Amino acid sequence: MKKLVKYTAILFAATLLLGLTGLVIDTKAGPDCGSCAVGCAESETATVTITGFNFCPGCKLKKEFGAASNCKEFGCTNALRITKIKADDDCAVDDYVGTTIFYLENENSTKLISELKGKAVEVKGKLYLSMPVLEVDSYKVVEG
Fold first, then answer.
1. Among 51, 54, 109, residue whose Cα is nearest residue 78
2. 20-31 pLDDT tens trace
3. Who has greater pLDDT, 43 or 49?
4. CB within 8 A of 92, min separation 6: which ones?
5. pTM of the predicted model as reported, rounded to 2 decimal places
6. Which among 131, 124, 116 is positioned nearest to 51, based on CA atoms?
7. What Rg do the C-alpha atoms of the chain give, in angstroms?
8. What is the pLDDT of residue 89?
């Protein structure tokens, strides 16, 4: 069990690293912090509602590029491809549409990360503007 937790943590870190370096396939790079912070005062976060598609970057990279991911053994670590985003304040976040973000693991994101692969979801939470990470407050599966 400890070995599985260790390998899951390594897979999550590798997936996060791929996303941070812009290597996640079929995504445009996320906006730089300067452009996304318009209207956000000096905040480094935005409270958002995001609609998107949950998928496993490891499986996608393996299928399309032959990456050495091993989701069958260690399990998938899902991320979110954004199709719609709205900030609760005046923060300009439209540049995030079409990008992939990763979930900060907490009690609210566990099922999004490990169980809802291939599902369209609406997620509410805090988006960290300096990196593609979402701290989940709540979510629901949506049709689409």
1. 54
2. 444 444 443 344
3. 49
4. 35, 36, 38, 39, 40
5. 0.71
6. 124
7. 15
8. 81
